[in-house]
Amino acid sequence: MASVTTMDRPSRFWWWSSAAAVAAIAVAAALYVVIGYQGDRGDLLTPAAGDDRVRSETTLGDATIVLEAEHGTIGIAELLEVTLIVEGPAGSLVTLPKLNGAAGSFDVESRDAIGPVTIDADRRRWMRTYLLAPLEVGTLATPPMTVILQEAVRQDRIETRRIDVEPLAVEVTTVLPPDANIGKPRGILGPVSLPEPERPLLWPWIAGAALALAVLAYIVRRLSRRRPLEDRASDEPAEVSALSALARLEGAYSADDIEGFHIRIAAILRDYAERRFDLPASYLTTQEVAAVVAARPKSQGWGGRLTTILGHCDLVKFARLRPSPEEMDQTRAAAAAFIRDTSADSEEA
Q1: Model pTM?
Q2: CA nearest 303: which of 261, 269, 346, 265?
């Protein structure tokens, strides 16, 4: 058995309008929070400026290990990028150290290793980059690193070598003057007013959200006024579309979807009345629709018949009335007879 479900257009309109409002407000709030947070956060750790690279090089047999830092002097609030490069014979297996967390005088974060990269037919290169955040000031040595190099010296023997990387000396400076004595007691000062953090203006986001909401509401309202019978042709007369929709309901009497069947009957009649009598039937009550139809010059009890059919559909929808399949077919037949009797051709006749 076929089942029919629908949602009346006022409900669809308010449902989509509410969803659009919530979405617009959520987007505006999220953008404001994200931009406001970024504006307040500032650059807590900034890369060091300039180019005063330092490097160390270690050679063991055919392997060459280079440790290079982009700066030899950084501030206490700056990050230092250090790159470890290993070049060795093809066929070697190289394991680069992976450091994370506190290591020596730095807090370290390791990036993904790269390699092996072919240099030529006999040589390969491996690389890994580390980000170092200094934990103190002064001349600091980069964290200790050990590279593991494995080579096949014979078909049945692999030689493993552990190579300690020569560390770099990095000068970490402070923003305090050289003669500053941070342990010296200082006099008690009055309250200090801190400047308010700059936040992005809120009103552009509110205005943008309101404009987006207005546009969405307009679109939804326009869409909600479209005829609910999606499968009818735009140039069909109102009675042809309505009778065709009612014909498709014949036999669709499911005990599990009695309410949906009557909601569809009511929607077909309201859509027909809206097109046939040029009235906003989807936004009027049953009594209001019937009153307008009854006021037609050639009305012959049309208002009462429409009130009976729509009132019966309202009882099923709101009072949980449960008619039998025979009564459901009678309701469908009564709706079809009303449409045929009130069609434009019948009124002209």
Answers
A1: 0.39
A2: 269
